[in-house]
Amino acid sequence: METMAGRDITYQQVISPQSSYVLKALIIPDRCVSATRYMANCAFIEDGAILPEYLKPELKQYAEYLNKAAEVVRRDPYCQAIQFVNFSGDKGSPNKPVILVQYRRAPSKWVNRYMTLAEIDKQYSALGLPNNS
User: What does pTM read for this prediction?
Assistant: First the structure.
């Protein structure tokens, strides 16, 4: 646990009761839960990456999620810069929006990450940042 500290790993111990061949997993509390986060990072968000003023009217109510998604992704250990954050037209809909965050992972290597609003809420709250809503 000390070697893997700060990586948000859930530990389990697998046991086999003597009376059967079934395996059971028991969750083991992380003794190093307060360790410094491994590869802590907060990447740059490029100018013009988030432009809520150009959103379709039916998506304006979710505009705060663009910033929240950027905050989540910029803390990815391998994120070097966020280039683009917007609603995905092909993965989501106005009733079930999905946000696309495009970020640079290495020189000339861009990654697209898609997140639902529920995923963003969960991951953003885990950051312990103030809620903008």
Answer: 0.70
Residue 103: count other Cβ atoms within 10 Å of its Cβ. 26
From CA 14, how far away is CA 6, in angstroms rounded? 23
| Number of alpha carbons in the 13 Å side-chain half-sphere of residue 65 | 24
Report the SS3 class of residue 101.
strand
Rg (CA), the chain: 19
CA distance 89 to 94: 9
Strand 81-87 relative to strand 98-106, pairing = antiparallel
pLDDT 10s digits, 1-58:
888 887 778 899 999 988 888 999 999 988 888 887 776 778 999 999 999 999 999 9
